[in-house]
Structures are given as structure tokens and as C-alpha cells.
Amino acid sequence: MKIKKLKVSSFRNLESGELQPGEGVNILYGPNGSGKTNLLEAIFMLSLGRSQRGANDGNMIFEGHDVYRLEGTIDTMSRSHKVAVAYSRQAKKKITIEGVSSKTSDLYDFSCVVSSGPEDSDILSGPPSVRRVFLDMYISQISRKYLSDLTDYSRALAQKNSALKQRMDCGMFDAILITAGSRVMEARRDFLLKLKERASEHYKMISNKELFSLNYKPSVSIDEELLSVNEIEAVFQIKLEDNYERERIMQTAMVGPHRDEIQFDIGGRAARIFGSQGQWRTAALAIKLAVYDILKDARGSNPVLLLDEIFAELDKDRCSALIKSFADFSQVFLTTALEPPDELKEAGRSFKVENGQVTVSL
Ligand SMILES: Nc1ncnc2c1ncn2[C@@H]1O[C@H](COP(=O)(O)OP(=O)(O)O)[C@@H](O)[C@H]1O
Ligand SMILES: [Mg+2]
Q1: Which of 93, 193, 249, 267 has the fewest other C-beta atoms within 10 Å?
Q2: pTM: predicted TM-score of the whole model, two decimal places
């Protein structure tokens, strides 16, 4: 996938602007606070209808304005799609594809984008919900079925929780929780098995020393062996029965993928507890490069890659190695506060971002 054109209005500090990105590398450079990360967020938002840093829509409207609007053209191998994402405080979010009002999930039919930025350290160091959001954001790009199972699961979960709070019968929700939830867990397990292998390779490349590993820790244990989805359903069912009393006492659903965890280890120790900030950032970059590989294989084409301030992460040799590898990517956007190195400038198109204004730099 490629972004051919992007028009931004009243989005964050970008009051209005237009961008025609090229193939290969697109460098966004400019001082801190100028709007580089905001521009990446606009690209992510146009592609998937959400923010890569989980920001809410109201906060993304240019201060003092009522509406933000993003328009653009997204090309895939087979065709070109005209997309618009707009949000107004009154009418909420509106997505159109070829001028036709569409659901956020429709964007997943053709968009595929991987983002890496400083906020990703939270995947290693933050609360479990950050790790689940990460899983959902990227597995949804591999499988529309995952996205719909997740939606079904979340809806049934909210209904069950509300019934538990009101001390009403909630047994009828368990059937859908078990079928949708088991498929969600199966997909997460399969994704994490691939991620484990690829991310440890990238981590080794970047850090050159410690070992990086990860393991899926579902609240329903399915990680011991490769259970089929029917077997997962059976295990989930038993676990729900075991927790019948507890859920009623606590008035909340206690088991299922909404309680899943991922354990990350760096140098054989739990990353969340023993990791340094530098290790978290390196691991986060390794994870996202691994996600890129997985999405590319699954979709059969290259995702768009957004790299926010990765040069802060890497020493000179690793920067050069990464820059060389950009030839393998079809479209990359990267931000840097420093004037980009010549080898990078020669590899692609540069845009200067200053005070929310974007200009092409020759
Ligand atoms: N909704 C908004 N309206 C206006 N300005 C905003 C909004 N949200 C963030 N900003 C401004 O955007 C700037 C940060 O932009 P950012 O893209 O993070 O900069 P950087 O170039 O360092 O990545 C800050 O000055 C911040 O105040
Ligand atoms: Mg930034």
C-alpha cells in the first residue's frame, strides 16, 4: 500500500496543508514541536481511522476549531482509493471511501500500516491494556475476521458486565464470549508465535548483545500446546464454570481475552520490571519491524511504515544498516529533528515541517 496524496485541515497543529509523498523514503524534518508526529498521526488516521498513539478524536481537532478533516489517496497493487476521515464535535466521526459513507473496518480491506515511535515503550513498560491494544491494532490488519470476532466479543463482554453489576442472569452471553473469544485467543497465539521469532532476530540485529523473548500469557491457558479452536473453547468453558461464583461476587467478567497478557523478557529477565528505558525502546522498534515482516507476508504486499524519531534509538552503523534496508520497503515516512544525512536525503523525498506548515524540501 502507498499514500499518494494527503490533505490535512485543522488536524492538531496542522491548520491546512497538502503532501504528495513519494515511493520509498519520505523524510519529515523540523524542530521539536513543529508537527512531525502529528503528520504521522494524520497518515495513520487516514489509513485506519484511528490514532497510533490512542489519542481521542476531540483532542486531535486544531484548538479552537470544530472539525478536522483528512483526505487522501491510498493506492494498493490493484487500485486507488479516495478516502476522507472527518471528525466534528457534533456529528462525530465520518469516513468516506470514494465518497460513500463507510465503516472504520472498511479501511482494513486495503490499508496496511505499521507505526513505530517513542510511545511504543509503553508496550514493554505500560499496563496490560496497552499490549492488548497493540495486538488488536495489528492482528486486525491481517484478518477482518479477527476484527469482527473482537467486536462481537467486546459487545457481549460489556453486556455481561452490565448484567453482573445489576445482579441479573448473564449466562446467555457466555456462548458468544466462548466462540468469539476462543478465535481471538487462537489468532493472538499464532501472531505472537511469529512475533517471538522475528522480533528476537531484529532485536539481536539492533542491540547485538542481549536476548529478547516474549510469551503469550492468556487468562485461559492455551499456551501449553497448540490447541485447536475447539479445544480452546472447551478450556474456556471450564474456566468460566470454575469462576462462576467469583464473577458474581466481583460483579465483573474475570476470564477471557480481555485479561490477556504478553510477557517480554530482555536478557532473561522480565522487561517490564528490570528493563531500562533504552532497552524498552530498542525492543519496541524490534517488535514493530517484526510486525512489518508479519503483515507483509500475510497481506502479500508491503505495509506503509511510519518511523518516529528512530535515529535517537540507533548508533551510526545501525542507522546506516537501517537506511540501506529502506530499499526493501515500499513507502516509509520518518521523522527527524536534525537535518537528515545526505545518504538518506538522496534515497527519497524530504519535507520540512515548521510551525505546523509542511513544505517540500529540494
Ligand atoms: N489539537 C491541537 N491543536 C493545536 N495544536 C496541537 C494540538 N495537539 C497538539 N498540538 C501541538 O502540536 C505540537 C506538537 O507537535 P508534534 O507533531 O508532536 O511535534 P514534533 O515535530 O516534535 O513531532 C505541540 O506544539 C502541541 O501543542
Ligand atoms: Mg515528535
Answers
A1: 249
A2: 0.95
